[in-house]
């Protein structure tokens, strides 16, 4: 399973393509970069604080819950998500690799230490480490390398055979998303795209299920009657 911002859209969390809020004034490419943070940590952290507040208010939707139900029913479900929210976890899914990090972790810019921080709203912007240095969101910004722990989990998953890889609610902008999907396909997985629109990955998919994730996933995943 590979998921992107579209799986959380129906929980009211805007994708980077939606128009409104911060997206009217800033492009993610102008905020989610090491340069933007070096220049203006206050603005970058204000954006993340607003996103943390949005996620804290949101609830998992029927799509997140359908994935968790399939896993609870005994189906092997591993989720590779580009999302930085925690809605898969809150729906009850257990096997999740966050490719781009989490809104709920920060990293000290001096000593590199990663800690959980769930305070909403943040009492101080930009927030600081106990050592006095600035902390940054523990999120993979444009131009940065992916974090090792999720990469290791994904490599282990790709060594297993999978019947199906669902690619849900992502533009698949990043080359590694294509690589992982195609690696699973080469090993025999059926590649199925769930998205109201076509994407750059559509031509490589065996099947396309057009529609919103919250409608399509409960209709196609196994184990839904155990709810
Ligand atoms: N919820 C989040 O954590 C969140 C939100 C916004 C952006 N992001 C970040 O955005 C980056 C962009 O990548 P991306 O490909 O995930 O998102 P994207 O914004 O580039 O694309 C969203 C995709 O979802 C599809 N979509 C929209 N509504 C949908 C629905 N109801 N059901 C199914 N699909 C739907 C769209 O057609 C589009 O293909 C990632 O790095 C991610 O970290 C994350
Ligand atoms: Zn520190």
Structure summary:
This protein is an alpha/beta fold. The protein has a single domain, classed as TPP-binding domain (Rossmann fold, 3-Layer(aba) Sandwich), CATH 3.40.50.1220.
Question: How would you portray this structure in words?
Answer:
- It contains ten helices and nine strands.
- By secondary structure, it is α/β, with parallel strands linked by helices.
- It has a single domain, classed as Rossmann fold.
- A six-stranded parallel β-sheet has the order 3-2-1-7-8-9, sandwiched between helices.
- A hairpin with a 5-residue loop joins strand 4 (101-108) and strand 5.
- Helix 6 packs parallel to helix 10.
- The chain is globular and about 50 Å long.
- The model has no long low-confidence stretch (mean pLDDT 95).
- The structure holds nicotinamide-adenine-dinucleotide (NAD) and zinc ion.
Set down the secondary structure blueprint.
Layout: E1 2-3, H1 6-9, H2 22-25, H3 28-31, H4 34-39, H5 41-57, H6 62-72, E2 79-81, H7 87-91, E3 96-98, E4 101-108, E5 114-116, E6 135-139, H8 148-158, E7 164-168, H9 175-186, E8 190-194, E9 207-209, H10 213-220
Helix pairs in contact: 6-10
């Amino acid at each position: 399973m590979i998921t992107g911002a579209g799986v959380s859209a129906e929980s009211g969390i805007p994708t980077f393509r939606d128009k409104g809020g911060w997206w009217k004034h800033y492009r993610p490419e102008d905020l989610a970069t090491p340069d933007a943070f070096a220049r203006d940590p206050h603005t970058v952290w204000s954006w993340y604080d607003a996103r943390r507040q949005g996620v804290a208010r949101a609830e998992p939707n029927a799509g997140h819950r359908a994935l968790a139900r399939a896993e609870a029913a005994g189906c092997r479900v591993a989720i590779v998500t580009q999302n930085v929210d925690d809605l898969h976890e809150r729906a009850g899914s257990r096997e999740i690799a966050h490719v781009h990090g989490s809104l709920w972790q920060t990293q000290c810019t001096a000593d590199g230490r990663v800690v959980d921080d769930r305070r909403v709203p943040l009492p101080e912007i930009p927030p600081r480490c106990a050592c006095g240095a600035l902390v940054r969101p523990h999120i993979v910004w444009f131009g940065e390398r992916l974090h090792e722990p999720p990469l290791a989990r994904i490599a282990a998953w790709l060594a297993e055979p999978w019947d199906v890889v669902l690619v849900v609610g992502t533009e698949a902008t990043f080359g590694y998303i294509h690589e992982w999907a195609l690696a699973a396909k080469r090993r025999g997985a059926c590649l199925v795209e769930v998205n109201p629109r076509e994407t750059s990955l559509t031509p490589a998919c065996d099947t396309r299920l057009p529609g919103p994730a919250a409608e399509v996933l409960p209709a196609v995943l196994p184990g839904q009657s155990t709810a």
